[in-house]
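User: Epithelial membrane protein 1, Chauna torquata:
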Amino acid sequence: MLVLLAGIFVVHIATVIMLFISTIANVWMVGTSSVGKASWGLWLLCNSTCRQLPVSSSNEASLKAAQAFMILSIIFSVIALVMFIVQLFTLEKGKRFYITGAIMLVCWVCILIGASIYTARFTGNMVGLTNTHHGYSFILAWICFCFSFIIGILYLVLRKK
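Assistant: Predicted structure for Epithelial membrane protein 1:
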């Protein structure tokens, strides 16, 4: 049981780190511009220099929503990690980590909403760029989506023996 708890803890920490990287790095999409290779994410458009991500006024709310949900996913993931540590030392034997699992599933929903909004509204949608494809931040976000779901379910069914 100790090995299982340690494994879940390590995967949870890895998920938090990948969520940070995914949200902060501006490599959700990569393409070619007239100046060379360019990448953009939730915050900036970068080629030789980085500048504010140019979005139309109709897409600005979608970008803000994607940013907000990805930040919320980080917050909920960190809260779930802290709750796991607290519950590990305060729960009686045989009790389940319901609160931690529920918070992690809220994190999962936030990642789903944030990444889905970005996918629907901004994938390959940058004017002046050709040969676009998904970058590592986008892929990390979807990996975190899978990990947070698995961790959330494991917390819900996990008993401390």
